[in-house]
Protein backbone atom coordinates (compact mmCIF):
# COMPACT_ATOMS: atom_id res chain seq x y z
CA UNK A 1 0.00 0.00 0.00
CA UNK A 2 2.78 2.38 0.96
CA UNK A 3 4.63 1.67 -2.30
CA UNK A 4 1.46 2.36 -4.29
CA UNK A 5 1.04 5.69 -2.53
CA UNK A 6 4.63 6.58 -3.32
CA UNK A 7 4.09 5.68 -6.98
CA UNK A 8 0.90 7.74 -7.18
CA UNK A 9 2.65 10.67 -5.49
CA UNK A 10 5.58 10.48 -7.90
CA UNK A 11 3.22 10.29 -10.87
CA UNK A 12 1.29 13.30 -9.58
CA UNK A 13 4.52 15.27 -9.13
CA UNK A 14 5.63 14.43 -12.67
CA UNK A 15 2.23 15.49 -14.03
CA UNK A 16 2.36 18.78 -12.14
CA UNK A 17 5.89 19.41 -13.39
CA UNK A 18 4.84 18.72 -16.97
CA UNK A 19 1.86 21.07 -16.59
CA UNK A 20 4.14 23.76 -15.17
CA UNK A 21 6.56 23.30 -18.08
CA UNK A 22 3.68 23.57 -20.55
CA UNK A 23 2.47 26.80 -18.94
CA UNK A 24 6.02 28.20 -18.96
CA UNK A 25 6.43 27.29 -22.63
CA UNK A 26 3.20 29.11 -23.45
CA UNK A 27 4.55 32.33 -21.96
CA UNK A 28 6.02 34.73 -24.50
CA UNK A 29 9.15 36.83 -24.08
CA UNK A 30 8.87 40.27 -25.65
CA UNK A 31 11.61 42.88 -26.00
CA UNK A 32 10.94 46.37 -27.35
CA UNK A 33 13.98 48.40 -28.37
CA UNK A 34 13.74 52.16 -28.76
CA UNK A 35 16.31 54.89 -29.34
CA UNK A 36 15.48 56.93 -26.23
CA UNK A 37 13.93 56.43 -22.80
CA UNK A 38 10.19 56.89 -23.61
CA UNK A 39 10.22 55.59 -27.22
CA UNK A 40 9.01 52.09 -26.30
CA UNK A 41 6.39 53.63 -24.01
CA UNK A 42 4.85 55.55 -26.89
CA UNK A 43 5.00 52.75 -29.44
CA UNK A 44 4.13 49.69 -27.39
CA UNK A 45 3.18 50.76 -23.86
CA UNK A 46 -0.43 49.58 -23.98
CA UNK A 47 0.52 46.31 -25.64
CA UNK A 48 3.22 45.76 -23.00
CA UNK A 49 0.66 46.22 -20.22
CA UNK A 50 -1.60 43.63 -21.81
CA UNK A 51 1.24 41.14 -22.30
CA UNK A 52 2.37 41.59 -18.69
CA UNK A 53 -1.17 41.18 -17.36
CA UNK A 54 -1.31 37.76 -19.05
CA UNK A 55 1.96 36.71 -17.42
CA UNK A 56 4.24 37.18 -20.43
CA UNK A 57 7.72 38.64 -19.87
CA UNK A 58 8.28 42.12 -21.31
CA UNK A 59 11.46 44.17 -21.41
CA UNK A 60 12.04 47.69 -22.73
CA UNK A 61 15.49 48.80 -23.91
CA UNK A 62 16.61 52.34 -24.73
CA UNK A 63 19.70 52.27 -26.95
CA UNK A 64 20.79 55.77 -25.88
CA UNK A 65 20.75 57.34 -22.43
CA UNK A 66 18.79 60.41 -23.52
CA UNK A 67 21.50 62.86 -22.38
CA UNK A 68 20.71 65.44 -25.12
CA UNK A 69 16.90 65.55 -24.91
CA UNK A 70 16.24 68.73 -22.95
CA UNK A 71 16.33 72.48 -23.49
CA UNK A 72 18.21 73.42 -20.29
CA UNK A 73 19.72 70.19 -18.92
CA UNK A 74 22.14 67.73 -20.45
CA UNK A 75 25.01 65.32 -20.00
CA UNK A 76 25.33 62.92 -17.11
CA UNK A 77 22.78 64.66 -14.92
CA UNK A 78 20.08 64.43 -17.58
CA UNK A 79 21.01 60.81 -18.36
CA UNK A 80 20.63 59.95 -14.66
CA UNK A 81 17.26 61.72 -14.51
CA UNK A 82 15.96 59.97 -17.62
CA UNK A 83 17.13 56.56 -16.42
CA UNK A 84 15.20 57.10 -13.19
CA UNK A 85 12.11 58.17 -15.16
CA UNK A 86 12.37 55.03 -17.30
CA UNK A 87 12.62 52.82 -14.23
CA UNK A 88 9.51 54.42 -12.74
CA UNK A 89 7.65 54.10 -16.05
CA UNK A 90 8.56 50.43 -16.20
CA UNK A 91 7.18 49.93 -12.70
CA UNK A 92 3.91 51.59 -13.72
CA UNK A 93 3.68 49.53 -16.90
CA UNK A 94 4.20 46.40 -14.83
CA UNK A 95 6.94 45.09 -17.10
CA UNK A 96 9.86 42.96 -15.97
CA UNK A 97 12.71 45.30 -16.90
CA UNK A 98 13.51 48.70 -18.44
CA UNK A 99 17.18 48.96 -19.43
CA UNK A 100 18.88 52.15 -20.62
CA UNK A 101 22.17 51.65 -22.46
CA UNK A 102 24.95 54.18 -22.06
CA UNK A 103 25.25 55.49 -25.63
CA UNK A 104 25.01 59.23 -26.19
CA UNK A 105 21.72 60.71 -27.36
CA UNK A 106 21.98 62.29 -30.83
CA UNK A 107 25.25 60.49 -31.61
CA UNK A 108 24.01 56.97 -32.35
CA UNK A 109 25.51 55.27 -35.42
CA UNK A 110 24.96 51.69 -36.65
CA UNK A 111 28.35 50.49 -35.43
CA UNK A 112 29.44 46.91 -34.82
CA UNK A 113 29.82 47.65 -31.11
CA UNK A 114 26.21 48.78 -30.68
CA UNK A 115 24.93 45.97 -32.91
CA UNK A 116 26.62 43.52 -30.55
CA UNK A 117 24.99 45.21 -27.56
CA UNK A 118 21.61 44.60 -29.15
CA UNK A 119 22.40 41.02 -30.19
CA UNK A 120 23.34 40.23 -26.60
CA UNK A 121 20.17 41.81 -25.16
CA UNK A 122 17.91 39.87 -27.53
CA UNK A 123 19.73 36.63 -26.74
CA UNK A 124 19.79 37.21 -23.00
CA UNK A 125 16.05 37.85 -23.04
CA UNK A 126 15.49 34.71 -25.16
CA UNK A 127 13.04 36.80 -27.14
CA UNK A 128 10.07 35.49 -29.11
CA UNK A 129 9.09 39.00 -30.25
CA UNK A 130 11.36 41.98 -30.95
CA UNK A 131 9.89 45.43 -31.67
CA UNK A 132 11.84 48.47 -32.89
CA UNK A 133 11.46 51.60 -35.06
CA UNK A 134 11.42 51.41 -38.82
CA UNK A 135 14.68 52.70 -40.38
CA UNK A 136 12.88 55.66 -41.99
CA UNK A 137 12.18 58.33 -39.40
CA UNK A 138 12.82 62.01 -38.76
CA UNK A 139 15.34 61.33 -35.96
CA UNK A 140 18.72 59.74 -36.83
CA UNK A 141 18.75 57.85 -33.52
CA UNK A 142 15.39 56.28 -34.41
CA UNK A 143 16.57 55.41 -37.92
CA UNK A 144 19.79 53.84 -36.73
CA UNK A 145 18.05 51.89 -33.98
CA UNK A 146 15.90 50.37 -36.71
CA UNK A 147 19.00 49.55 -38.77
CA UNK A 148 20.81 48.09 -35.76
CA UNK A 149 17.92 45.79 -34.89
CA UNK A 150 17.57 44.74 -38.53
CA UNK A 151 21.29 43.95 -38.57
CA UNK A 152 20.85 41.83 -35.44
CA UNK A 153 17.84 39.95 -36.80
CA UNK A 154 19.79 37.08 -38.34
CA UNK A 155 22.91 37.32 -36.22
CA UNK A 156 21.10 36.37 -33.00
CA UNK A 157 21.20 32.72 -34.16
CA UNK A 158 24.83 32.69 -35.38
CA UNK A 159 27.07 31.02 -32.73
CA UNK A 160 30.33 32.66 -33.86
CA UNK A 161 28.87 36.14 -33.48
CA UNK A 162 29.11 37.39 -29.86
CA UNK A 163 30.24 33.91 -28.72
CA UNK A 164 30.22 35.04 -25.09
CA UNK A 165 26.39 34.96 -25.19
CA UNK A 166 24.68 31.71 -26.28
CA UNK A 167 22.82 32.08 -29.60
CA UNK A 168 19.08 31.68 -29.83
CA UNK A 169 17.84 28.31 -31.02
CA UNK A 170 15.18 29.97 -33.19
CA UNK A 171 14.93 33.39 -34.73
CA UNK A 172 12.37 35.69 -33.10
CA UNK A 173 9.68 37.51 -35.04
CA UNK A 174 10.73 41.13 -35.54
CA UNK A 175 8.21 43.97 -35.75
CA UNK A 176 8.24 47.74 -36.24
CA UNK A 177 6.49 50.39 -34.18
CA UNK A 178 3.80 52.40 -35.91
CA UNK A 179 4.81 55.67 -37.59
CA UNK A 180 3.30 58.10 -40.07
CA UNK A 181 6.15 58.38 -42.55
CA UNK A 182 5.26 57.67 -46.18
CA UNK A 183 8.61 57.38 -47.97
CA UNK A 184 10.11 55.16 -49.20
CA UNK A 185 7.02 53.19 -48.14
CA UNK A 186 4.21 53.78 -45.62
CA UNK A 187 3.77 51.81 -42.42
CA UNK A 188 1.79 48.57 -42.89
CA UNK A 189 -0.25 47.43 -39.85
CA UNK A 190 0.13 43.65 -39.83
CA UNK A 191 -0.94 43.53 -36.18
CA UNK A 192 -3.31 45.92 -34.41
CA UNK A 193 -3.95 45.84 -30.67
CA UNK A 194 -6.88 47.73 -29.12
CA UNK A 195 -5.67 49.36 -25.88
CA UNK A 196 -8.74 51.25 -24.67
CA UNK A 197 -8.92 49.17 -21.49
CA UNK A 198 -5.31 50.05 -20.54
CA UNK A 199 -5.15 53.55 -22.02
CA UNK A 200 -5.20 55.31 -18.66
CA UNK A 201 -2.44 53.05 -17.35
CA UNK A 202 -0.34 53.85 -20.40
CA UNK A 203 -0.79 57.56 -19.70
CA UNK A 204 0.11 57.01 -16.04
CA UNK A 205 3.37 55.39 -17.13
CA UNK A 206 4.13 58.09 -19.68
CA UNK A 207 3.52 60.63 -16.92
CA UNK A 208 6.72 59.35 -15.26
CA UNK A 209 8.79 60.90 -18.09
CA UNK A 210 8.44 64.42 -16.71
CA UNK A 211 11.53 65.72 -18.49
CA UNK A 212 10.07 64.73 -21.86
CA UNK A 213 6.31 65.08 -21.91
CA UNK A 214 6.07 68.20 -19.74
CA UNK A 215 9.35 69.97 -20.54
CA UNK A 216 11.37 69.00 -23.62
CA UNK A 217 8.73 68.00 -26.18
CA UNK A 218 6.38 70.93 -25.40
CA UNK A 219 9.38 73.25 -25.67
CA UNK A 220 10.28 71.84 -29.09
CA UNK A 221 6.66 72.25 -30.24
CA UNK A 222 6.36 75.78 -28.82
CA UNK A 223 3.70 74.70 -26.30
CA UNK A 224 5.66 74.82 -23.05
CA UNK A 225 3.53 77.69 -21.71
CA UNK A 226 0.43 75.47 -22.07
CA UNK A 227 1.68 72.81 -19.66
CA UNK A 228 -0.07 73.08 -16.27
CA UNK A 229 2.11 73.18 -13.17
CA UNK A 230 -0.14 71.15 -10.87
CA UNK A 231 0.49 67.36 -11.30
CA UNK A 232 -3.15 66.27 -11.71
CA UNK A 233 -3.87 69.01 -14.25
CA UNK A 234 -0.63 68.21 -16.02
CA UNK A 235 -1.58 64.53 -16.27
CA UNK A 236 -4.99 65.49 -17.70
CA UNK A 237 -3.23 67.72 -20.24
CA UNK A 238 -1.03 64.80 -21.29
CA UNK A 239 -4.12 62.72 -22.00
CA UNK A 240 -5.60 65.49 -24.14
CA UNK A 241 -2.39 65.83 -26.17
CA UNK A 242 -2.07 62.08 -26.66
CA UNK A 243 -5.64 61.86 -28.00
CA UNK A 244 -4.48 63.73 -31.10
CA UNK A 245 -3.05 60.52 -32.57
CA UNK A 246 -5.97 59.25 -34.62
CA UNK A 247 -6.50 55.73 -35.89
CA UNK A 248 -5.74 55.61 -39.62
CA UNK A 249 -8.09 53.78 -42.01
CA UNK A 250 -5.43 51.07 -42.46
CA UNK A 251 -5.17 50.49 -38.71
CA UNK A 252 -8.96 50.52 -38.37
CA UNK A 253 -9.15 47.83 -41.06
CA UNK A 254 -6.45 45.82 -39.28
CA UNK A 255 -8.50 46.04 -36.08
CA UNK A 256 -11.47 44.61 -37.98
CA UNK A 257 -9.34 41.67 -39.10
CA UNK A 258 -8.12 41.00 -35.57
CA UNK A 259 -11.27 41.71 -33.53
CA UNK A 260 -14.22 41.73 -35.88
CA UNK A 261 -16.15 44.77 -37.07
CA UNK A 262 -18.24 45.42 -33.94
CA UNK A 263 -15.38 45.61 -31.47
CA UNK A 264 -13.01 47.27 -33.94
CA UNK A 265 -15.47 50.09 -34.56
CA UNK A 266 -15.70 50.71 -30.81
CA UNK A 267 -11.93 51.06 -30.42
CA UNK A 268 -10.58 54.55 -29.81
CA UNK A 269 -6.98 53.74 -28.92
CA UNK A 270 -4.74 51.16 -30.58
CA UNK A 271 -1.11 50.25 -31.19
CA UNK A 272 -0.09 48.71 -34.50
CA UNK A 273 2.99 46.80 -35.62
CA UNK A 274 4.48 45.91 -38.98
CA UNK A 275 6.18 42.54 -39.45
CA UNK A 276 9.84 42.80 -40.50
CA UNK A 277 10.81 40.31 -43.18
CA UNK A 278 14.34 39.83 -41.82
CA UNK A 279 13.48 37.60 -38.85
CA UNK A 280 11.03 34.74 -38.48
CA UNK A 281 8.10 35.01 -40.89
CA UNK A 282 4.98 33.83 -39.05
CA UNK A 283 1.78 33.11 -40.95
CA UNK A 284 -1.55 34.57 -39.82
CA UNK A 285 -2.25 31.74 -37.39
CA UNK A 286 1.22 32.09 -35.86
CA UNK A 287 0.71 35.84 -35.57
CA UNK A 288 -2.40 35.17 -33.50
CA UNK A 289 -0.31 32.96 -31.23
CA UNK A 290 2.34 35.65 -30.88
CA UNK A 291 -0.28 38.27 -30.03
CA UNK A 292 -2.86 36.42 -27.89
CA UNK A 293 -4.10 39.82 -26.64
CA UNK A 294 -6.81 40.06 -29.27
CA UNK A 295 -8.85 36.98 -28.31
Characterize the structure shown.
This protein is of the alpha/beta class and 295 residues long. The protein has one domain (29-294): LmbE-like (Rossmann fold, 3-Layer(aba) Sandwich). 49% of the residues lie in helices and 12% in strands. The chain has helices spanning 2-26, 39-53, 75-93, 112-125, 140-155, 199-206, 210-220, 231-242, 249-259, 261-266, 284-290, and strands at residues 29-34, 57-62, 97-100, 129-132, 173-177, 191-194, 270-275. A seven-stranded mixed β-sheet has the order 3-2-1-4-5-7-6, sandwiched between helices. Strand 1, helix 2 (39-53) and strand 2 (57-62) form a beta-alpha-beta unit. It starts with a helix and ends in a 5-residue tail after the last helix.
What are the salient characteristics of this protein?
single chain, alpha/beta, Rossmann fold, 7-stranded mixed beta sheet, 295 residues, 11 helices
Secondary structure layout plus pairing:
Layout: H1 2-26, E1 29-34, H2 39-53, E2 57-62, H3 75-93, E3 97-100, H4 112-125, E4 129-132, H5 140-155, E5 173-177, E6 191-194, H6 199-206, H7 210-220, H8 231-242, H9 249-259, H10 261-266, E7 270-275, H11 284-290
Helix pairs in contact: 2-6, 3-6, 4-5
Summarize this structure briefly.
The protein is α/β, with parallel strands linked by helices and 295 residues long.
The CATH architecture would be: 3-Layer(aba) Sandwich
Termini gap: 47 Å
Radius of gyration: 21 Å
Structural class comes to alpha/beta
What order do the SSEs take from the amino end to the carboxyl end, as H and E? HEHEHEHEHEEHHHHHEH
CATH topology term: Rossmann fold
Describe the biggest sheet? 7 strands, mixed
Name of the top-level CATH class = Alpha Beta
Oligomer: single chain
- How many E-type strands? 7
Give the count of helical stretches: 11
Supply the number of structural domains.
1
Mean pLDDT over the residues: 92
How much of the polypeptide forms β-strand, as a percent range? 5-15%
CATH H-tier superfamily? LmbE-like
Helix content: 40-55%
Strands in their spatial order, largest beta sheet = 3-2-1-4-5-7-6
Q: What general form does the structure show?
A: globular
* Unreliable parts: 11-24
